[in-house]
Automatic annotation (TrEMBL):
Keywords: Cytokine
GO terms for biological process, alphabetical: immune response
Protein's UniProt keywords contain ATP-binding: no
Cellular component terms (Gene Ontology): extracellular space
Protein name: Chemokine interleukin-8-like domain-containing protein
Residues in Chemokine interleukin-8-like domain copies: 5-34
Amino acid sequence: MDLPCVDAVMFITDQGKILCARPNIHWVKMKIKEIESKRAESDKAN
């Protein structure tokens, strides 16, 4: 996939859809924190 160079965060949903958003938007920052927190918990469990 050849994507343009932009300042964006890409989320891939469980259904395989790609969602792009600007990284400075509040909900994007909150979702990133949520994902990082879940990843850290998962790493501790393993």
